[in-house]
Amino acid sequence: MDSTLCLLVEAGLVVARDGHAESNRRDRTNRSPTAPSAKTPMPSTEVQRIILLVGLGVLGYLMVYTWTQDFAPKVPDAPTQAEAPLVDANGEDPIADPIGGQHDDTPVGGEAGAPVPSVDDDVPVGFGTPGAPDPEPRAFDDVGRLVYVRTPVHEAWIDRRGGDIVKLQLVRFPKTVGSAETVTLFDQRPGHIYVAQSGLIGVDGRDRNGRPLYTASASEYDLEEGTADVVLRHESDGVALTKRFTFDADDYLITVAQDVDNRSGANFEAQLFAQLKRDATRPDDSGVPFGPRPYVGAAFTTLEDSYDKIDFEDLDDGTYRAEVDGGWAAVLQHYFVSAWVGAPGEVNAYYGRRLGDGNYAVGFVGPRFVVPPNQRTSVSAELYAGPKDQRRLEEIAPHLNLTVDYGFLWWMSVPLFYVLDAIHSVVGNWGVAIILLTFCVKLLLYPLASASYRSMAKMKKVMPQVKRLQERYSDNRQELSKRMMELYKKEGANPLGGCLPLLVQMPVFLALYWVLIESVELRQAPFVFWIQDLASMDKFLVLPLLYGVSFYVMQLLNPPPPDPMQAKVMKAMPIVFTALFIFFPAGLVLYWLVNNLLSLLQQWYITRKIEKASS
User: Which residue in 346, 344, 340, 303 sits closest to 322, CA to CA?
Assistant: First the structure.
């Protein structure tokens, strides 16, 4: 933060001074007919100023870019993939409508043509009834449609109509610190829908013309360790379907397999589809009132882009389409992700589209398969529903770990996170890990910071002479500029030397910023005493106030700006940034505070060393 302010103040000083000098030069040229017309070569100080202005332009672009990614409204754009529909071996579009030409506004209840459970029609018995509390999951009877599954990481409700996961809670993630209520990822209630759907479509697919009603051998499953299968069965026209959900006690990955036993006298032809159906509402889980808005939307992996984000608004004007070997389709929100992962070795048709009821579907359709009479086959997909654990995501599918979105500086954020995680594995406290990481970053950038502080110390030493020059040449800014440059050259001081080295540190600060707000490991991570969530603001404002004090003390060690107006602006900066940091995550403020304290020690030591050498 001190580098940005330094750059802005110095740039203002240089531009203002150059403006006055240029104005005086033009006036004198107009008044003097004998003024030389030959152009003098550009001095080195002018080159430095141009470099500074270019650097400021780049920095300003990055800041505006980051702001627009967080806050600016999105302008819907039809994905380019929609311009070239995919075709299969039969020349047909495999994802023209993966639910058989029907739309989500069709009532549900077993009627022909009813493809998926709708949030407004035929809500499962005892579930999501307006004005009613959540159902007791064990209250299951012959007319009930929900199968309840509890594992150490999941609480899930599976609707026997279609075999969709219509509600899922993450047991290990409280909604707020100390709350008994856990994070709800999937849900289906009036005003909000987010469900994981799968089934068989195509020529003979039972989900093509109405969702099948499965039977279940048990009403509830309670898994303590190992794995367990939740088995749903359906039989019609001589074809027996078995849908198996395999849950792991210690994993957020769910395997969904569709077994087909063809007991009819004809071939059975179908395709597996798997999709996430969701509205565009945003969960309120940022933890920071005025912080950046985490991305909420779809993401895919393709041959061209390892990580392709598609906003829901972009699907209003067209369908996203891509063919991928294996691949995955995900829906992202802050800290958590759900993703359907296709079987490797199979070319799947991925899509994202807006449904007839205004919701969005993100998923894929697998290749066609044929089951001859008296034969069996099985198709499957994997569903991840849980936190953005980048190590686990990387194991599940290529590039799935990129859903931990660190922005355009991800190539710096990823190693910073791994260093932070390694430190945490030793000390066991994320706050202490942040402090130690700050030491590591400071040590790495020590040479640059030392050069900056030496330049500041020299500037502070020549400030009395600068003030005398300002008083002497107050009516001649061109001469003042010339004398100041001569003084700087004589004393070996560079007014820009304190800023340019610090500019290199800004990408590190921005990369760490995204690590602290995007990594689920720091969500509700306690530090000490009153700080029980490093990803939320400090409710007692202790860290922001300490940061403001450290900022003010740093200003006392720096040479004041020659311009009185800029000096007043600099005095107000500690107050302005303290007010801003009130709303920042406590972990980020902790980093800046420790960074300032280390900078104070380093600057004090270098300044004292230079003063002793000159005395």
Answer: 303
Amino acid found at 267: N
Nearest residue to 168 (alpha-carbon basis) of 179, 157, 181: 157
Three-state secondary structure string covering 248-284: ECCCCEEEEEEEEEECCCCCEEEEEEEEEEECCCCCC
Check whether 511 has a pLDDT greater than 80.
Answer: yes
- Using the CB atoms, write b or e for 217-228: b if 16+ within 10 Å: eeebbebeeeeb
Average pLDDT, the chain: 77
Compute the distance between CA of residue 458 and CA of residue 496 in angstroms, rounded to an integer: 12
- In angstroms, the Cα distances linking 228 to 42, 168, 213, 258, 385 are 76, 17, 22, 16, 17
Beta bridge partners of 278: 194, 360
Q: Which helix (H) or strand (E) holds 136?
A: none
Does position 414 have pLDDT exceeding 60, yes or no? yes
Q: 500 vs 407, which has greater pLDDT?
A: 407
Q: Are 14 and 51 in contact (CB under 8 A)?
A: no
pLDDT of residue 290: 56
The amino acid at 512: L
Single out the residue of 347, 351, 306, 307 nearest to residue 324, CA to CA.
347
Please identify which residue in the block is written with the tokens 């075999």: 163
Question: For residue 415, what pLDDT band results from cuts at 50, 70 and 90?
Answer: very high
23-53 confidence digits (pLDDT tens) = 444 443 443 444 444 344 444 444 444 555 5
197 φ/ψ angles, rounded to the nearest 5 degrees: -120, 150
Question: Which run of H or E residues covers position 331?
Answer: strand 328-332
Measured in whole angstroms, the distance separating CA 517 from the mean position of its chain's CA atoms is: 8
- Using one digit for the tens of pLDDT, what is the confidence trace for 99-124? 534 433 333 333 333 333 333 333 33
Q: How far apart are CA 533 and CA 539, in angstroms?
A: 10
Q: Are strands 297-300 and 253-262 parallel, antiparallel or unpaired?
A: unpaired
Measure the CA–CA gap between 428 and 439, rounded to whole angstroms.
17
Mean pLDDT of all residues in 348-376: 96
CA distances from 451 to 130, 138, 218, 407, 501 (A): 65, 68, 71, 30, 7
Name the residue type at position 398.
P
Please give the pLDDT value at position 573.
84
Q: Are 65 and 408 in contact (CB under 8 A)?
A: yes
Phi, psi at 245, each rounded to 5°: -105, 115
* Rounded CA separation 442/388 (Å): 28
Question: Whole-model pTM?
Answer: 0.74
Residue among 524, 569, 570 at smallest CA distance from 551:
570
